[in-house]
Amino acid sequence: MKKTLLTLTTAVVLGLSSMYAYAADPIVIKFSHVVAPDTPKGKAADKFKALAEEKTKGAVKVEVYPNSTLYKDKEEMEALQMGAVQMLAPSLAKFGPLGVKEFEVFDLPYIFRGYDDLHKVTQGEVGASLLAKLEPKGVKGLAYWDNGFKVMSAGKPLKAPEDYKGLKMRIQSSKVLEAQMRALGANPQVMPFSETYQALQTGVVDGTENPPSNLFTQKMHEVQKNATVTNHGYLGYAVIANKDFWEKLPEDVRKGLDEAMKESTDFANQIAKEENDKALEAVKASGKTEIYTPTEDETKAMQKALAPVHTEMAERIGKDVIDSVYSATGFDPSK
Ligand code: LMR
Question: Which positions carry the signal peptide feature in this UniProt record (predicted)?
Fold first, then answer.
């Protein structure tokens, strides 16, 4: 009798404890990224974590790994496809190696006159149709997060296109960016973001291009004497998930995550411009990099030098994709 009671009690305790363990075991989302926490993407990832955990009442735990602590650029894409991480927000310039070259349309020089043009694409049909192209790769496109317009930097003043001649310029893994640097007579060097600071410091490369928030938070400005606010191109993100993981989530959990994504996207896109403006001011205040704002004529000369990149890259990106962007923004830089 005593023994039976003991067995029963043990069974109940075991049963309860395993039930408890089930309820307490959250679904873990590893969210890897390559920038500092104190950037538009870093802040938005942290915001998503807080909102996702709150909206799913703890059923989901989001682990954010910033600054390439888990994976570097190329590896993180492979890790997502293999399911080793569940979410990423790579720059739109990094989808070519995945086989989705159309995203490189965002890298075309001077394609957007500002954030308003950009949002007509990222928040409209063209943006949605581009995200859909990721699905056959096992990748679910969830949203676009803004960063900003790029400055060019190096160890010398950069005013005219000729100033770039022969410079080794670090770029992201985009053929459009490669063509852009070649059009300026520079020598493009594809390199992971995490290795850029050291490459600039040791002179492996001479310069680079980045929105001010990346330049400042990676301390690149400490190893670049000059930066020019060219605003020649855009750098922003697609937030993506492993498709299989996302689609197998319980319905109510996915609903909570969709809400969290929507709110963190609004947040990202609200803070991006201000974060970049602040970072540019901080670079100026540091006194380490001389910031130059080009004159109208200098901007025109850069636009002229870079215009051929649009036609040169039409075959790679798809002329239809480029035209769909021109028509969404109402702006064709060649006209
Ligand atoms: C870069 O490699 O320069 C950027 O894509 C980094 C980032 O994620 O903003």
Answer: 1-23
Please choose from 68, 91, 173 the residue to mutate so as to test ligand 1's pocket, defined by most ligand atoms within 8 A of CB: 91
Q: How confident is the model at residue 322 (pLDDT cuts 50, 70, 90)?
A: very high
Q: How far is the CA of 193 from the centre of ligand 1 (A)?
A: 6
CA 206 to ligand 1 center in whole angstroms: 18
Q: Ligand 1: which residue has its CA nearest to atom 5?
A: 91
Out of 39, 70, 72, 73, mutate this one to test ligand 1's pocket (max ligand atoms within 8 Å of CB): namely 73
The phi, psi pair for 165, rounded to 5°, reads -55, 125
Question: Residues 93, 149, 239, CA angle at the centre, nearest 5°?
Answer: 45
Q: What is the domain-level CATH number for residue 216? A: 3.40.190.170
> Domain for residue 2, yes or no?
no
In this structure, which amino acid lies at residue 122?
T
Q: Given phi > 0 = left and psi -120 to 50 = alpha, else beta, which region is 314?
A: alpha
- Which tens digit of pLDDT belongs to each residue from 87-102? 999 999 999 999 999 9
Pocket test for ligand 1, best of 173, 235, 276 (most atoms within 8 A of CB): 235
Smallest CA-to-CA distance from 176 within 22, 279, 295, 318 is with: 318
Enclosing domain of residue 171: 7-329
Compute the radius of gyration of the chain from its Cα atoms: 23
Evaluate whether residue 324 is within a structural domain.
yes
Structure confidence by residue, pLDDT tens digits, 123-152? 999 999 999 999 999 999 999 999 999 999
Pocket of ligand 1 contains residue 172 by CB under 6 Å? yes
- Report yes or no on 1 lying in a domain: no
Instruction: State the total domains in the chain.
Output: 1
**Is 22's pLDDT higher than 80?**
no
